[in-house]
Design goal:
Keywords: Coiled coil, Nucleus
Family: Belongs to the AMY1 family.
GO molecular function, one term: transcription coactivator activity
Strand content: under 5%
Subcellular location: Nucleus
Protein name: c-Myc-binding protein
Length: 126
């Protein structure tokens, strides 16, 4: 009895996971083939979605080409970042605030440096 329940549980597992349906479809496809293939196992593999050796080699080559291109693009990015950094250094952007930045700050806050304050304001503070 225990063996039957294990078999039934396994059959239910195959059914709910879609294995029975996939195998049935591929076997029906093989049955309906007018000319039966020399190697039925290869036919089943290719129709179940497994890549053929030729497809595998093609995918492997594509992967290698993409990896090479990725390395090239990463190198170009690193060069562009370095060039940007060099340009910033050349114009002084990496050495503290840019010239005139304090003037822009004061204009936005409305504060004026002491030498630009009206004379009356300076005289009244004395």
């Amino acid at each position: 009895m225990e063996g039957d329940s294990k078999k039934e549980a396994f059959r239910k597992y195959l059914d709910t996971s879609g294995v029975l349906e996939a195998l049935t479809k591929v076997l029906v496809t093989l049955y309906e083939e007018p000319e039966k293939p020399q190697n039925a196992i290869d036919f089943l593999k290719s129709n179940l979605g497994a890549p053929t050796p030729a497809e595998y080699d093609q995918l492997k080559n594509e992967k290698e080409q993409i990896e090479t291109k990725c390395k090239e693009v990463e190198a170009q990015l690193a060069a562009a970042v370095q060039e940007l950094q060099d340009l910033k250094t050349a114009i002084g952007l990496n050495q503290g605030p840019a010239p005139g930045a304090d003037v822009q700050q004061e204009q936005s806050t409305g504060a004026q440096p002491p030498e630009q304050q009206p004379a009356a304001a300076t005289a009244s503070s004395k």
